Amino acid sequence: MTVEFIGMIHHREASEIMAPPPVIMDRGYIRDFAQAAETGGFDKVLVGYYSDGPDGFLLAAAAAAHTEKLGFLVAHRPGFVAPTLAARKFATLDQITGGRAAIHVISGGDDVDQFRDGDTLAKEDRYARTDEYVSILKRIWTEPGPTVDHEGRFYHFSGASTAQRCVQQPRIPIYFGGASNAAIAVSAKHADVYALWGETQEQVREITGRVRAEAAKYDRTVRVSLSLRPILAPTEDEAWAQAESIKQRIIERRAALGLSPRNPVNEGSKRLLAAAAKGERLDKRLWTGAALLTGASGNSTSLVGTPRQVAESLCEYHDLGVTTFLIRGFNPLVDNVAYGRDLLPLTRQLIAERAAARAA
Fold first, then answer.
1. Which three-class secondary structure state does DSSP give residue 76?
2. Could you tell me the pTM of the whole model?
3. What is the CATH number of the domain that holds 209?
4. Which domain holds residue 73?
5. 116 in any annotated domain
6. How many domains does the chain have?
7. What is the pLDDT of residues 234-273, one digit of tens each?
8. Which DSSP symbol is given to 15?
9. N or C, which end of the chain has less CB nearby within 10 Å?
10. Is 282 contained in some domain?
11. Residue 357: CB partners within 8 Å, gap ≥ 6?
């Protein structure tokens, strides 16, 4: 079972402990981060979706101009761009990058943020729309005819062109986020990779079992991705001290901004907080301190330890069937470089050794 590593690129350097610079699009940072990720051996970087952020397609294209092999997983919320146009946009990005594009489908778990872009659909309806939307994307990317017609609940069109094809065949990879029952049902039907935030091993075992059971109904196999924020240091004590330092900096920055944790509305955040309620340190080195402080508003749990200790923990998740790790740091560029130097090659080595031992 292979392993894939995905980083996360932003339009400027910022995090829970780093105030963003005044520039919106820091082109130098985008270049440096993309090149460091490629040099460090990342397979892809995730380009996030923000209702107040730059366009992800253009950010990916800008970063791709400075790299040769690095893939770009562009987060996309169905509903704001017609699926016929989105299919062309993603296929065009795949052409521009020479086969390095992928889509991360996010139906949207926050009504307030969805409405910032004019989406008024209720959550259950958003997943029904996503099902129809992704079905259309797949048809336009793969059907042999010159055109596609569609008559559905949310979309109606006739003669949509299939001329703009993906370089990757039969289409670009589809990643899916969301932990609700509706999200799992749609993921099982369409996803190549189902993406989780950094949960406990027990939680991962439970939810991936549900995903695989749903996917089996369609005679499909879905890979699993896990998102984490590794905190590395030469010794375990230094790593935990660094985690405590990050915690204090989050507290100070949120106090300065007058922020308090929001009650989460999406299931992924609720699952992280359910784990955090059991303690800040779980499964030996899963740290939930940042999730508690931020209301688990994003992927906010960490593995803490030496590079070897964290690599061994990643191997344990790999043994549970996780094939993709999406990792990013609290100090984005510095951590990105450290992961490529200290964590990725070691994790790949340990996974290969474990596979060889099982084969023997």
1. strand
2. 0.96
3. 3.20.20.30
4. 4-227+306-359
5. yes
6. 1
7. 999 999 999 999 999 999 999 999 998 778 878 999 999 9
8. B
9. C
10. no
11. none
